[in-house]
Design a protein that fits this description.
By secondary structure, the protein is of the alpha+beta class. It folds into 2 domains: 3-80, Glutaredoxin, CATH 3.40.30.10; 89-240, Glutathione S-transferase Yfyf (Class Pi), Chain A, domain 2. The chain contains 11 helices and 4 strands; from the N terminus they run E-H-E-H-E-E-H-H-H-H-H-H-H-H-H. A 4-stranded mixed sheet has the order 2-1-3-4, covered by helices on one side. Helix 1 crosses helix 7 (165-178) and helix 4 runs parallel beside helix 7. It is globular and about 50 Å long.
């Protein structure tokens, strides 16, 4: 039985796992799952993970959730190059530091901007108050500033001279608000240069392939059937508004 990855490339963590597997030529069956259609709540997916989130992995009888755990599992199983998660204690610590920070910082704030600028008004048909948008932008700008000044600094990548898991996790989150039409790289030459280095290290083809869905979101979202989201609407508005 081939290793299976359950993914929705609308999701940032799914893109990081997808890029890592593709960049390292790890063979896998791509099991596409639509979060917007609620497929994560299906009976079959519940057998993969009770967390009911993607990404998820099934390797024979072994199942695993959470993107960082999945990438570390793949790194160990397929003996990927050391630079992804170095044996060096301090470089590994820098990666762990970023992975620990990002969940409640850039992940939260980038996602919020994506929903406030695009999904909530265009799919759910709800106007977003300007004060909510302004506060979300302030939070996002704070996280982007920390990525530049704290995590990148004057290095090529977050953990030093080579790309690592931290950069993969970072780039997909930074690209999420871009999918809503917000150019987060404008006026941020350090962030822009880092993005270019990450893209070059991954390879433009894989980078573009992973981000195709999110980069086309401004065109695709208005054409989606918003009625499918009505069940989730109260929860979404509670989280983001």
């Amino acid at each position: 039985m081939a290793l299976e990855l359950y993914l929705d490339l609308f999701s940032q963590p799914c893109r990081s796992v997808y890029i890592f597997a593709k960049t390292n030529n790890i063979p896998f069956d791509f099991k596409k799952l639509s979060l917007l259609d609620g497929e994560q709540y299906g009976e079959e997916f519940g057998k993969i993970t009770l967390i009911r989130k993607v990404p998820a992995l099934r390797d024979g009888d072994f199942c695993l959730a959470e993107s960082s755990a999945i990438m570390l599992y793949l790194a160990e199983k397929f003996k990927t190059p050391d630079f992804w998660y170095p044996a060096d204690l301090q470089r590994r610590a820098l990666i762990n530091e970023y992975l620990s920070w990002q969940h409640t910082a850039i992940r939260l704030h980038g996602s919020k901007i994506f929903w406030l600028r695009l999904m909530i008004p265009k799919l759910l048909g709800v106007d977003v108050p300007q004060d909510k948008m302004d506060a979300a932008l302030e939070d996002l700008n704070g996280s982007l500033k920390l990525i530049e000044e704290k995590f990148i600094q004057d290095k090529l990548f977050i953990a030093g001279d080579h790309i690592s898991l931290a950069d993969l996790v970072a780039i997909v989150e930074v690209m999420q608000p871009v999918g809503s039409g917000l150019d987060v790289f404008e006026g941020r030459p350090k962030l822009s240069a880092w993005r270019d280095r990450v893209q070059a290290a991954i390879g433009k083809e894989i980078f573009d392939e992973a981000h195709k869905t999110i980069m086309e979101a401004q065109e695709s979202v208005p054409l989606m059937d918003g009625s499918k989201m009505q069940f989730f609407k109260p929860k979404i508005l509670r989280i983001f508004l």
